[in-house]
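User: Here's a chain of 204 residues. Predict its fold as C-alpha cells.
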Amino acid sequence: MRKFKYFIDHDKEEKWLREMANKGYQLESVSFGYKFRESTPEDTVIKIDYRTFKKQADFIEYCTLFEDSGWEHITGSKHSGTHYFRKKDKNSDTDIFSDKKSKAGKYKRLSNMFMEVAICYLPIFVALQTTGVIDLEVIVDPQSLYYTEGLWDMTGASFWKAFLFETPFALFRGFAWLFIPVSLFLFLFFSYRANKLYKKNLNE
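Assistant: Prediction complete.
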C-alpha cells in the first residue's frame, strides 16, 4: 500500500507512522510517497533524523551506531537526507536523540537544505524576468496564448474541439514559468517552518 502525505514536523510524522503500524501497516520505504506492507498490528516506535553524508563509509557508520543502540534503519540513503528508524530493542532508549539540542539540530539541517535549494532557484527566477520569459500580459490577454488560426471565429462543436485541444498547450506556454516562483516560495516557507521547529525544540 502507498500513501501520499508531506510533513515538516517530524513529531507529527512519527505519530502518524505509529498509528499506521497499530493498524497493521509497517513502513517499508519513503520515496514516491510512503510504502507500507500489511502485517500484524503492532505498537511500533519510529523516529526520524535528517542528515546527509559525503562518504558512504560515514553513512554506514551512522546506521551501525543506531543498530548497536537498538534501532533498525528502515529507509534513507547517503544523499536522501531523511532517515527512518524502528525501535527493535524494547530496552533501548525511547528516542534516538540524547538531548533536546541534538533533536533540534535535525530541523536546523533541514531548514538549511531548503534555504540552499531556494537560493539555487533565485537566479533562475531573475533570469526569466530579465529575458522576458515571464509575460504578465497574458493574464489580461489569455487569447494570445492560442495559436490555432481563426479559433475565435469558430462556433459550435468545431470551436470547442479546437479550444479544448489547444488549451493544455496554451497554459503550458503561458504559465509554465510559474513553477519557478512557486517552488522558490515553497522552499523559503519550508525553511522558515523548519527553523521555527528548530527553535521550538531547542527551547522545550
